[in-house]
Design a protein that fits this description.
The protein is an all-alpha fold. It has one domain. Helices cover 63% and strands 0% of the residues. The two termini are 28 Å apart. Belongs to the TMEM88 family. It is found in: Membrane. Keywords: Membrane, Transmembrane, Transmembrane helix.
């Protein structure tokens, strides 16, 4: 049965707020994983750019005693070369966590706001974090 206009607007606001919170939770998880996995690349490229004489040319002791322009260039190149496999690894880690915790299934359709009596999708499928209760092989993300 359809909801009245006022109730439909309130439920729509609730569902939009919940979907935005789930989106930002996914975005925060993605940012944390990429930051941790890409930290070696960030450090290597940072030191390469900091010690190169044509870029920043820092007066730090490690730049004067250990890193000249050719070794700084090598660090920059190494950082960009190892970035590609680390991006793939970070994306694989995020996808496995999102699948394990069913993060993409927490998004609710807007039809829940329009009609009365519908249960929340995560409730129908066994709870918010189904990984605790066991894996349901009938629910697939790609179907």
């Amino acid at each position: 049965e359809p909801r009245n206009t006022c109730c439909c607007l309130a439920w729509t606001l609730l569902i939009v707020t919940m979907n935005i919170l789930v989106f930002f939770l996914n975005l925060l998880l993605l940012f944390v994983i990429f930051t941790i996995v890409l930290l070696p690349t960030i450090v290597v490229v940072y030191f390469g750019f900091q010690c190169h004489s044509k870029v920043l040319h820092s007066a730090a002791r490690y730049c004067r005693s250990f890193l000249d322009d050719s070794s700084s260039s090598a660090l920059i190149i190494l950082g960009f070369v190892i970035m590609s496999p680390l991006i793939v690894a970070a994306m694989a880690i995020y996808c496995s966590l999102a699948r394990r915790f069913h993060l993409l299934m927490c998004f609710q359709p807007y039809s829940r706001a329009v009609y009365k009596g519908g249960k929340w999708r995560w409730y129908e499928e066994g709870g918010l974090c189904r990984c605790v209760r066991g894996w349901n092989t009938q629910v697939k993300a790609w179907v």
